[in-house]
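Backbone geometry tokens:
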Amino acid sequence: MMRCPNCNSKDIGKIGSHQFYCWGCFIELTVNGDKMSVFQVEEDGTLSSLDDLFFGDDFVTPPYPEAHASS
């Protein structure tokens, strides 16, 4: 089960082929292979990256097999 890297919630919804939304803290997650990006959704709908808060330069996301979409 995928968990949010921010709030540790399991309440994650799929909104695109590689995009997920956390209903616990309202952030958007993008997973491509072994890399995850985290975004805050702004009031105007734009996304602001939060990667610098969660991941260092050498960070590789732990595997999330259920997050890999097969479209």
Notes: Residues 12-67 form one domain. The chain has a mean pLDDT of 81. The beta strands are 12-14, 19-22, 27-32, 35-41, 47-49.
